Amino acid sequence: MSSKVAEAASRAAEHVLQHPIQAAAYVVVAGASLVFLLVAYVVYLSYLRPNPLRHIPGPPAHPLLGNFLLMAKEPGALAEVRWSRQYAKDGMFRTQAFFGKPGIAFLRPKALRKILVEEPYLYPKPPQTSKLLALVAGRGLLTIEGEPHKKMRKTMNQAFSLTSLIDQFPVYYDKIYPMVEVMQRQIDAAPGGGGAKANEAIIDVDALAARALLDIISLTAFGYDTDSIRNPDAELYVAYHQVGALQTGKNQAMLMPLLQIPGTGWLLDKASDWSDWSGQLAKLEKGSKLRDLFLLLNGMHRIKRVSREILRLQLNSGERVALKPGSKAIIDIIEETNQSENESRVRSLKEAEDNMIIQVLTFLGAGHETTTSGVSWTLWNLATHPEKQDKLRAECKALLDSEPRPPYSAIKALTYLDAVVNETMRLTPPVPRTLRYASKDDVIDGTFVPKGTLLPIFSRAINTFPETWGDDAMEFRPERWSDLPAGYDRTFSMLTFLAGAHGCIGRTMSYLEMKAMVAVLVANFRFEPIEKDYQPVMEALITMKPQGGLPLRVSKV
């Protein structure tokens, strides 16, 4: 067979060499035909294809790239915020994704309740969204749908019960106070250096928060101390930092079209297993279009390798963070679930380990990235609103001066801290957008939604929708939480953590970590912008974070 193919190829090559003009004509005709077909397809997508959503107002869209270019040009999900004001007179606006795929962004509680709570499994994530999440968080709770999701969610709920979280709350201080010590040393070592005055230093609070929070989730969930806060070169932190730094509009423009191609997500996932890609990285100069792709693969390879080492070590050693009887850490539940499944069917050790490592990846990644975003933007909001920072400091110091490691109940009682954290999470949700689609024809809040319609959940637009929050919706005003607007819905007016079956399982833990960390930091330090006109750029491929970190001018109080 192979000899016949080779013979045919040889004859074709000989024909081309003997008739070059005729061959060139074929190439020109083929190229022109492809261009014609592409233009015809674009015209069909833009003007001829039946679209029952055309009557719904919405922003202009590119026939192939949809609204993507406009969204990429305005970091921090500000395009969606603007569209919610410009087009959503009826609580919704039309959107368009790649290749003309139509969508509707609903903003009002009635529609959101149907999508997220009443029938969540009829509105799953599109494959490309799951592929993107799977690249950095594994194919676990964040990406699976239907019955497997329902079963896994029920199992994992045990680790996130309020009882378990209260039990592990004191462990948070074991990493927050070393963070304080690191910041104090930086201030002592840099009197007047780097543009800072005496008794202050310019500190990247985003990087420090990420290190401390990675330590907290590693310790409380898996009983393993990564010690990133004391060791900035800890491999797991470095790998996560490497992957996190790739969350740019440019990389979104590269990845999203790529993930539309069937098999691409699987290939990238497997490629990060096969090799660390350091050899390929060494050959590529900075600025190369392929460099960021290999950085992603290299970072994910290192995260998976270290996570696998943590899993093996903890399963073999049996050492855990001491919790009260009846409380369970994530590692305990992973181990129990794995043993149960092994009893029900024969599985290879490799398959069992792969299944467990998915959960480790999910909770390590999601467990510190989103909370880091929340802490960073809280400190930024306080730095730019010094009078609110002073008010919060007075509340926190009154407690911490007498009780440096206050229990959960004492932190919960700090009402202004609660308002500050809530207001930050409203204004700058760590995940500002996600995506669902209609798996069947349906009617949502009186609007016909054809099967296949995309349903973007624009959390930042919902959280700042003037219809709910008023004309000052984009202002940082914690005081609004003591006098909520009449139209406020406690579940759907603020969708920072989503709701229903796909609501964030770690919501309460994230809030507790943020409150404990912010309370201790504000009681010990004053935060100011590094310059009067400095404004961090919000990047939001998955998590909304300050591009390149968040340097602040920090001084002791």
From TrEMBL:
<dbReference type="Pfam" id="PF00067">
    <property type="entry name" value="p450"/>
</dbReference>
<keyword id="KW-0560">Oxidoreductase</keyword>
<dbReference type="InterPro" id="IPR050121">
    <property type="entry name" value="Cytochrome_P450_monoxygenase"/>
</dbReference>
<dbReference type="InterPro" id="IPR002401">
    <property type="entry name" value="Cyt_P450_E_grp-I"/>
</dbReference>
<dbReference type="GO" id="GO:0020037">
    <property type="term" value="F:heme binding"/>
</dbReference>
<dbReference type="GO" id="GO:0004497">
    <property type="term" value="F:monooxygenase activity"/>
</dbReference>
<keyword id="KW-0408">Iron</keyword>
<keyword id="KW-0812">Transmembrane</keyword>
<dbReference type="InterPro" id="IPR036396">
    <property type="entry name" value="Cyt_P450_sf"/>
</dbReference>
<feature type="binding site" description="axial binding residue">
    <location>
        <position position="504"/>
    </location>
    <ligand>
        <name>heme</name>
    </ligand>
</feature>
<keyword id="KW-0349">Heme</keyword>
<keyword id="KW-0479">Metal-binding</keyword>
<protein>
    <recommendedName>
        <fullName>Cytochrome P450</fullName>
    </recommendedName>
</protein>
<keyword id="KW-0472">Membrane</keyword>
<dbReference type="InterPro" id="IPR001128">
    <property type="entry name" value="Cyt_P450"/>
</dbReference>
<feature type="transmembrane region" description="Helical">
    <location>
        <begin position="23"/>
        <end position="44"/>
    </location>
</feature>
<comment type="similarity">
    <text>Belongs to the cytochrome P450 family.</text>
</comment>
<keyword id="KW-1133">Transmembrane helix</keyword>
<dbReference type="GO" id="GO:0016705">
    <property type="term" value="F:oxidoreductase activity, acting on paired donors, with incorporation or reduction of molecular oxygen"/>
</dbReference>
<dbReference type="GO" id="GO:0005506">
    <property type="term" value="F:iron ion binding"/>
</dbReference>
